Amino acid sequence: MLNTSEFIIQSLVEDAKLSRGDADEIRRFMADKGATLEDAAIYTKKIGTRDLAVAKAGICEYPFLDLSMIDADIRNSRRLNNSISERLVAFPLYVLDEVATVAMEDPLDLQAMDQLRQVLRRQIDPVVCDAEQLRMLIARAYSLDAGDQTESATNDEATDHEQEPIVAAVNQILFSAAHAGASDIHVNPDDKSLHLRFRVDGVLQTQQGPAIAMHEGIVQRLKVMSQLDVTQTRRPQDGKFRFRHKGQPIDVRLSLIPTIHGENAVLRLLRPAGSIGAIADLGMPADVAEQFTQAVSKPHGILLVTGPTGSGKTTSLYTALNSINTPDRNIMTVEDPVEIRLPLIRQIQANNAIGLTFANALRSILRQDPDVVLIGEIRDEETAKIATQAALTGHLVLSTLHTNDAAGSIARLREFGVPPFAISNSLLGSIAQRLVRRVCTSCKAPDTPEPAVLRSLGIAPDTKGLSIGRGCPSCMSTGYKGRAGVYEMLSATSAIRVLIERDATVSEILAKSRAAGMRSILEDGIEKAMLGITSVNELSKLHATVDLDSTIEEPLKIPA
Ligand SMILES: [Zn+2]
Question: What percent of the chain lies above the pLDDT cut of 90?
Fold first, then answer.
């Protein structure tokens, strides 16, 4: 897991602004003293605060401003009292009608941004500044201009008090959602109450909602955070903002739609890059993990991940990228949407409205000398052809396809008109996956399903180890906590390549692959149920989503 400070340290090392030894010393100082990166920089003197600010600006995508190049108006100290300015390490540089440009040490600090927005009563446009310069400016401004702050301070407090319950409610909602690992927050008003629901592990869960009286305030607050038009309540609006949870910035996409009971808000929480772990943590069976790792470490070729929406394909691809994300590789992506921002990787958002289709973006990317290219999805003939061509000309290409199973990806590439030699020479492998819910480990108990249910799934009725969650506070009474991937992988071995080259049927290819040990998604699911990782109920649902006719043409290989 990497936090923002660690990203900054790494990018400084990569830019040769910091030696590895000095980087370690800074890390030690931070760990020993519980210090911030800025403090560690100032005390250890291993890195200039200016270089640090430039690196931080690059990572959080706000501009860097050299305070020595401008003549800051210290009269702006009247707008922000001394203690707040010092505590937040922030100073307003320019204050226009609706926007305040504020010099900050850390614009990713959501609470600081909140407070500045309230006190300055404007949208905040942060610029990242050298911490030492900024602290000097603050000291200078307040010692030279100790003007009468009584009036504005009183007003600020009045606003603070008025806004406090709303701000606290919104912060509480965001905190609880991030804490629960929710992917979405739904704020739905009706005529009597305000319903709050979190989507956790793919399922909506009802939460204790705030009073309906707070609805308007909450929506207004979300609009302010997303810098949307607060006066517009009759049209749908989309916005985004960022907050911090346990030191990690979390990006949020806000969607507002007016209903007869007021504005309905849905917030999508994008996971921080730090949530992407190692391939070993994906829960793939050992042989699949090994084949997947091997495919990802190849210098060129195409690796496909298939499955329906919400099957965890993106996580697998990002994990693959993460495992090869080193400064000596140029990695570029084209995605729609960019779901997680990865450090050091150039991510491009496809945008059909301006003609930046996957195919067009891909053509441009290939002129940027990439080593590795991730294409969010191959959904048309043109993209399929450019992708395989790129894989044949020395690039590692990772992408997803909408097919049910691993072997289906070969059929899909054929449908897209990719010639057999191009598929056989470029394909490294194809992995299909789904997500099943994990049985909650706090309330796990043995499960004894009906024998008929077990037989329909191909599980022996006296099988031991099947588990179910009874429901407890830890899993919000659902019996499940978290999700696990179930996988099948078709590796393009030389035998498989020969079959692809001579246009063999998919069932022939599948039979060959299974003879070499490939196991199906359902077989992986059964194994995970027998290990008590998931339940038979989840397996029944999985069974329904897997198109058996196309995958299984011989009896299931049930692990003993
Ligand atoms: Zn539980």
Answer: 51
Confidence of residue 29 (pLDDT cuts 50, 70, 90): confident
> Is the peptide bond preceding residue 461 cis, with omega within 30 degrees of 0?
no
Q: What is the pLDDT of residue 464?
A: 87
Pull the structure tokens for residue 16.
Answer: 């040769």
Measured distance CA(415)–CA(413) in Å, rounded? 5
Please return the burial class of 371, using the count of CB atoms within 10 Å of its CB with bins 0-12, 13-18 and 19+: middle
> Rounded mean pLDDT of 251-255?
91
The C-alpha atoms of residue 139 and residue 445 are separated, in whole angstroms, by: 62
Residue 394 CA: distances (Å) to CA of 308, 334, 348, 390: 29, 18, 21, 7
Rounded to the nearest angstrom, the gap between the alpha carbon of residue 9 and the centroid of all alpha carbons in its chain is: 21
DSSP H helices in 273-430: 286-296, 313-323, 358-366, 381-392, 408-415, 420-426
Tell me the CA–centroid distance for residue 484 and ligand 1, in Å: 16
Measuring CA to CA, which residue among 240, 174, 242 is closest to residue 207?
A: 174
Report the alpha-carbon distance of residue 255 to residue 247 in Å, rounded. Answer: 25
- The C-alpha atoms of residue 539 and residue 554 are separated, in whole angstroms, by 19
Distance from residue 449's CA to the centre of ligand 1 (Å)? 19
Quick: pLDDT tens for 98-144: 889 999 988 888 888 889 998 899 999 999 998 888 988 887 777 64
- Mean model confidence pLDDT for the chain: 87
Model pLDDT, residue 158: 39
Q: How far is the centre of ligand 1, averaged over its atoms, from the C-alpha of 201 (Å)?
A: 14
547 and 403 Cβ atoms separated by less than 8 Å: no
Q: How far is the CA of 349 from the centre of ligand 1 (A)?
A: 39
With CA atoms as reference, report the closest residue to 93 among 66, 111, 56.
66
Q: What is the pLDDT of residue 331?
A: 94
The torsion defined by the Cα of 79, 81, 86 and 90, in degrees rounded to 10, comes to -20
The sign of the CA dihedral 151, 156, 159, 160 is: negative
Q: How remote is the CA of residue 176 from the centroid of ligand 1, in Å?
A: 18
Q: Could you give the maximum distance between any two Cα atoms of the chain, in Å?
A: 85
CA pair distance 358, 335, nearest whole angstrom: 8
Exposed, middle or buried: residue 456 (CB in 10 Å: 0-12, 13-18, 19+)? exposed
Structure tokens at 361: 């973006």
Tens digits of per-residue pLDDT, 318-336? 999 999 998 889 999 999 8
- Alpha-carbon distance of 75 to 73, in angstroms, equals 5
Query: At residue 352, does pLDDT exceed 70?
Result: yes
What is the distance in A from the centroid of ligand 1 to the CA of 447?
Answer: 14
Distance 537 CA to ligand 1 centre (A): 16
Q: Tell me what the mean pLDDT of segment 493-499 comes to.
A: 96
Q: Which long-range contacts (CB under 8 A, 24 or more apart) does 249-252 make?
A: 249/4, 249/60, 249/108, 250/178, 251/341, 252/174, 252/226
